[in-house]
Design a protein that fits this description.
Blueprint: H1 3-31, E1 37-40, H2 46-58, E2 62-66, H3 80-91, E3 94-95, E4 101-107, E5 110-117, E6 126-128, E7 134-140, E8 143-146, H4 149-158, H5 169-181, E9 183-184, H6 186-191, H7 198-210, E10 214-219, E11 222-227
Parallel strand pairs: 1-2
Antiparallel strand pairs: 2-5, 3-6, 4-5, 6-7, 7-8, 9-11, 10-11
């Protein structure tokens, strides 16, 4: 094959790849932000990125699209430094650290970074705040929400792999309370807990959720608990 023909084939290959990249990014952007996808116009706050990574890792996984505005407009990654900041968020500002899958797409003449976060087997994954304190997050709809104490108990209890739950007066009282009231916040459960500690009630609610007796719902930025 002559040099001119090789150049033409190479140009066609690049053009086809760019078209494929644009198609994929447009398809993802069309989904909008949701429980498993978040848009980032720019990486300006490494701790905010760590929160998103924590939320995805503690749930069913997800992806960041860096270089995409909240309204879905493709703005493009501004510099390679943003890519390094995402990696730093995963390795330095997440505990335990996370391994990401990154790919750069060239769409509409701009680079978009796709960051894939797999669900962690070591929950909770926490993001460090300005003081170095770890906080675990979960993803609800298109928001990163601070995990509740019940989430923490649930993750802890799952490590025990218990197949049987005790049914004492405490369990009976809490279930009857939820049956009577319909739904309660954790604070309300604690106030009517007949002397049970907050830690004990968190553990019970976590067990109830794990065994399908109780469900946790999020409404108006508050977690509620009700019989399933």
């Amino acid at each position: 094959m002559r040099a001119g023909s090789e150049t033409a084939v190479s140009a066609m290959s690049i053009s086809s790849r760019m078209k494929d990249d644009t198609t994929r990014i447009r398809m993802l952007v069309a989904e909008g932000e949701h429980a498993h996808q978040d848009f980032k116009f720019a990486v300006s706050d490494i701790r905010k990125i760590a929160k998103s990574l924590s939320a995805f890792a503690n749930g069913g996984g997800g992806r960041l699209l860096v270089g995409v505005k909240d309204n879905g407009k493709i703005a493009g990654v501004r510099s390679e430094e943003e890519m390094y900041m995402v990696e730093a968020a995963a390795s330095v500002y997440c505990r335990p650290s996370l391994t990401l899958e990154n790919r750069v797409y060239h769409a509409e003449g701009k680079d978009v970074l796709e960051v894939v976060v797999r669900e962690s087997e070591c929950k909770p994954v926490c993001a460090l705040d300005e003081g170095g304190r770890p906080w675990a997050y979960i993803r609800i709809a298109d928001e990163n929400i601070l995990a509740s104490p019940v989430h923490l108990s649930l993750w802890k209890n799952r490590k025990k792999e218990r197949s049987v739950m005790a049914y004492t007066e405490h369990e009976r009282h809490l279930l009857n309370l939820l049956d009577k009231c319909g739904e309660l916040t954790l604070n309300q459960c604690c106030r009517q807990g007949r002397g049970m500690t907050r830690k004990r009630i968190c553990g019970l609610l976590a067990d109830f959720i794990r065994f399908g007796l109780v469900e946790q719902i999020f409404r108006n930025h508050t977690f509620y608990y009700r019989l399933a």
